[in-house]
Amino acid sequence: MTKPPKSAPIGVPPAAGPLPRRSRSAMRPKQPQPDHPMPARIDPCLATLVAKPPKGSDWALEVKWDGYRLAVHIENGGVKILTRGGHDWTGRFPSIVAEAPRLPLKTAILDGEAVVLDGQGRSDFGLLQRALGHRPASHEPGEIMLYAFDILYLDGRDLRRLPQRERRRLLEPLLEGRTGAIRLSEEVEADGEAFFRVACELGLEGIIAKHRAKPYRSGKRPEWLKIKCVRRDHFAIVGFEPSTVPGAIGRLLLAARQGSSLVYVGGVGTGFTQQSSARLRELLEQIPTTTPAVKLARKNAVFTRPILAAEIEYRAWTEDGKLRHPSFKGIHEINDVATIYRIEG
Question: Which reaction does it catalyse (predicted)?
Fold first, then answer.
């Protein structure tokens, strides 16, 4: 009687030869995986511009920083810095890159603004541009700091669905009290209108209001609001640059008083229609001069006697003494030199 063949051990295929050896890595226990993989990039939440601050305790208030919006990705000691448009600018912010691994976390995405502060502690976009090498700089890249105002990912958790108040609760203990290149953008407990008024008096760009109960959503959202400070002053018109449109003005050339003289403070090319631009050019062509009121070399510029003043709305002054984001609002004759903006010092 023929004996039936012996069956193979359970779990082992009926194949000849020794069993394959398991590699050491296969024998190691699996490492725990994060609940959510870190996103490669998150489009930022953008604030909607409004005329005045919202009311009520549902809104958190912060200073509006004047710099570059950045997302700082921190993962196991490595750092990547992305701009609002998704460009990798890691190499441009060495101080932030050096500081990020020192934070008490393993993985995170911080949302914030890179700034350089002036002598009064205000963020200055012109100083930031110079520190980044766009122009001759009195500030070094190491002086650039990040004011972080949100956290989108932390140690394996995607936090975007949490309300703002919960994300803030997780961010604060990580940054509170830090004075290095990464700092906390403080929330201000105050009435919105009062805070806005003080911010403008201090020469800040404005304030931001965020709804405490809302999640983080990319794109321009009504749950984040920005309220900008604007200034309005009168400046002497010392000439103009013709437009490529026949008979119109490209830019008005403006001056302020400094001591007993006029100094050039930049040009303005927005705020007038084509029709008003043509009327303005016709008026200025009636008061030309061959001796400009300011020291200025401008190709194709037409210089005029400084007997007219332009009312200009603008946001701030640049480091080199020019108007930032000026817009033309009106014109009148200079009847009193006191009406022209005076630069002190």
Answer: ATP + (deoxyribonucleotide)n-3'-hydroxyl + 5'-phospho-(deoxyribonucleotide)m = (deoxyribonucleotide)n+m + AMP + diphosphate
Its pTM stands at 0.70
Taking only the tens place, the pLDDT of each residue in 160-194 is 999 999 999 999 999 999 999 999 999 999 999 99
Which residues belong to the active site? 64
Stretch 227-248: mean pLDDT, rounded?
92
Per DSSP, 187 falls in state B
Sequence-separated (6 or more) residues with CB below 8 Å from residue 151:
108, 109, 110, 111, 159, 167, 170, 171, 174
Q: What is the CATH number of the domain that holds 274?
A: 2.40.50.140
Q: Where are the beta strands (DSSP E) in the chain?
A: 45-49, 59-63, 68-75, 78-83, 107-115, 145-154, 157-158, 182-184, 206-211, 219-228, 231-242, 249-258, 261-268, 302-303, 308-314, 316-317, 323-324, 327-333
